[in-house]
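Below is our example:

___
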Amino acid sequence: MPNDKKISPIVDEREFKFIQEQIIPKKTWKHVVKSVIKTIMLAILFGIVSSVVICVAYPYVKDVIGDEDERKLTAFTKHLTLIRVAPIVPTVKEETPVNIVPVENKATLTIADYKELYKELDAIADEANRFVVSVTSIINSVDWLQNPFETSDITSGIIIQESVDKKTLFILVRYSKIKEVNKIRVTFDSDNVVEAKLANYDSKLDLAIIKVDESELSPKVKHTFKVATLGESISCSAGDPIIAVGNPNGYPYSREYGIITGKTTSAYITDNRVDLFNTDVTDNSNGDGVIINLRGEVIGIITHKFKSDLNANISTVLSISRIKSIIEDLITGIDRTYLGIRGADLTSEIASSLGVGNGVYVNEVETESPALEAGLQTGDVILKIDDNTIISMAQLNTIISSYQPKDEIVIVVKRTINATEEEDRELTLHVQLHKKKN
């Protein structure tokens, strides 16, 4: 039998193995710790190598790229570093945000605080009263039996300027209150009443300047009076607190507290435009005076000339900023120039309809005026005065005031279609200015 078996020579030469797999021993906790430490060490090593490479390469990269690219590279490097270090940084669980409720501290005003506030306002008004005087206008008359008697009217005035030689005080008052009177008396206090003279006036604005001789003032008055400070009304706005001094409610040296309620109105007078604002101080037909801010500066003059039905029950005020130069001219007594028109600023819609980009519209040309003599007409649009482009009546007044009476100016106007004009045309007129009428 053995001799009959045929065994392959390959089988005889190969070692025969029945189990090919090897059994791997189970890892213990020591092996896990070693793996973690190995990972950490590799991460640290990577971070060190990356930092060294970046530090060495950075100066060369900076020379090649600009500042903007440098900021982008820095951001990218930070982002790359975060990605590389992320596996070894433990995840932090986000906490629920806490809603923070602001706590308001409310201050409660007491009656004492309220009284103290009014004491401070009264102190400002008391200081302002140092430039306020009482002005009495006297008219001599006779009764039906030919007996002479005097009638008087009281208004308020403010000391607006003192002469350089300190010999004369100039006082601003309403012209209508001292117009065509026989005497003007100024009361500084009960023991010091002096006579004043009319120095100058502007009937269009209802303003006048009277003057008194300082030599007639007592030493006490000389020591206590002050000259009013003219502030700026352009920066004022609705809601600003104000104080009215003078005789706003009809009584000398009275005062009223309030706010500015609006300053969007204006009035057009000969060759000029003046700005107005309103306050919530109750209007009194016998009252006048000035409006001051909480710094004690005059920002307006109470007026009755420019009142309208819309503000019949509240005080109307001339803004001081636009009339400062006029007051100065009245004090110095210089001759002012006169063109003789009443105009209006153009809105963008009206300018477009008239086919112009700028100018002022002539509403009226006064008789015996330089404007009428030169040929200006109602409906003309004044475009230029000499080399100055005209954009408003206020600007026109500034330009006219820079000339002297008898100076000649060139006015360019656009004459629109009317009964005598078949088409619009542009005209150049030569005008000789006159001395302004009071």
The first strand starts at residue 132 and ends at 142. The two ends are 161 Å apart (CA to CA). DSSP finds ten helices and 20 strands in the chain. Confidence is low (pLDDT under 50) at residues 1-21, 75-93.
